[in-house]
Amino acid sequence: MRSSWLIAVVWLSACAGSPTPSPRTERAQAAASRGDDAERGPSARASARDLRPDASFADLVAAARRQDELRDQDSSAGCLLRLGPPARLEADLAAAVRPLPEPPPALEERLGEVAVLTRYEAFGRADAPLQLAAFTTSRPPRGRAVGVLAITRSALFLGRTGAGERFRELDRARLATLDDGVSALFVTADAGVSVRRLAEVLAALGPMAGRVGLAVALPEGVRRPEGELPEDETAPLCELPEPSDEGVGELARDALARGVAPLGERVPACTGGTSGAGARGGRVVLQFRVDADGRVREACVVEDETDDGVLRACLLRAARELSFPAPVGGSLDVALPLSIRPADAFQQRALCD
Questions:
Q1: Which region among 57-66, 154-163, 201-210, 227-236 has the lowest average model confidence (pLDDT)?
Q2: What is the rounded CA–CA span in Å between residue 98 and residue 285?
Q3: Residue 159, pLDDT score
Q4: 3-state helix, strand, coil in the chain (%, to 5)
Q5: pLDDT-derived band of residue 80, with 50, 70 and 90 as boundaries?
């Protein structure tokens, strides 16, 4: 239900917000039964996200590192961690440094002033003794302090970025009412802290629950990573190539609408994942080809008033993961105009339902 609503908000078309066949497939009207491909695609490729029952925070960071190395960072789950079984790293990922470092065995002696480096910008002083690298797509508003919740083997500590700010020990009961005026909260932990304990802390968060990201400490003595932040993948404007088959497929509009519904979950992730003009929103026209087996193998952004290559690349990745019933008669080209709203931040729930 939520996905359908989001799609209704972001679509622009002459037909009451429906995706429309391109001129090549203008006659696509016939109904086709919907197949169940929910288990193929990203879930099949993302087994590295699954965690052992006894997994630690170090194991969770290792899973994020593997996904980042595979450039398979995207997720439409809308949450950071699923307890399972099996436990699973569900977060949409955006590693601030590559490769992600191993978390330290003990953080407590380093809990003085803290800084957080995200894919989009840095928060806090460059010479803060504790530097964290975020690895989820949480994107705090510019110019505001962010909070840090450190989970050690024996206690919880709360800090925030800013000159002179230091960590203080936090009673677990305070998590339910925690909102210290920060724009986002980044959670980190000792290497050996269990994923189950991390999940318990995430589940206990109150007002901050929708503004939480995960981060890992950089090695002691590191003030800022050398070189530039990792570059985001970009994509140019393009046109679909001529189809290899001669048949023009047909698919009912309601089947098309069901097939594109997952984009409603992904568009906020794409707008929240760029620091360019796409974060302000705008009109984008996406075209893709549904092959005879219902898979999307070709996709292009043909119009983009934001002129944001990072946004285009994210939308194209999302389009290629869509699944449809098999069109009748051949492949089907679909044109989908999107009216994208500005994104303050891509907010993922701390713990999956």
A1: 227-236
A2: 32
A3: 94
A4: 25, 25, 50
A5: very high
* Per-residue tokens: 102: 């191993």
Burial label, 91 (beta-carbon count in 10 A; 0-12, 13-18, 19+): buried
Distance between CA atoms of 139 and 141, rounded to whole angstroms? 7
Give the neighbor-by-neighbor strand order of the sheet with 114-117: 122-123, 114-117, 130-134, 212-217, 185-189, 147-151, 156-160, 168-170
- Cβ-contact 305, 284 below 8 angstroms: yes
Q: How confident is the model at residue 208 (pLDDT cuts 50, 70, 90)?
A: confident
Which helix or strand (DSSP H or E) is residue 320 part of?
helix 309-320
CA distance 352 to 136: 15
Q: Which two tokens stand for residue 33?
A: 């039964």
Transcribe 124-185 into DSSP letters.
Answer: S-TT-SEEEEE-B---PPTTS--EEEEE-SS-EEEEESSTT---EEE-GGGGGG---S-S-E
User: What is this structure's pTM?
Assistant: 0.65
Average pLDDT across the chain, whole number = 81
Place of tokens 């080809």: 289
| Model confidence pLDDT, tens digit, residues 283-308 | 999 999 999 999 998 999 999 999 99
Q: Which two tokens stand for residue 255?
A: 């089947």
Is the omega angle on the peptide bond into residue 85 within 30 degrees of 0, that is, cis? yes
pLDDT, one tens digit per residue, over 93-120 is 989 998 999 999 999 999 999 999 988 7
**Cα–Cα distance between 259 and 265 in angstroms, integer?**
13
41 CB burial (10 A radius; 0-12, 13-18, 19+): middle
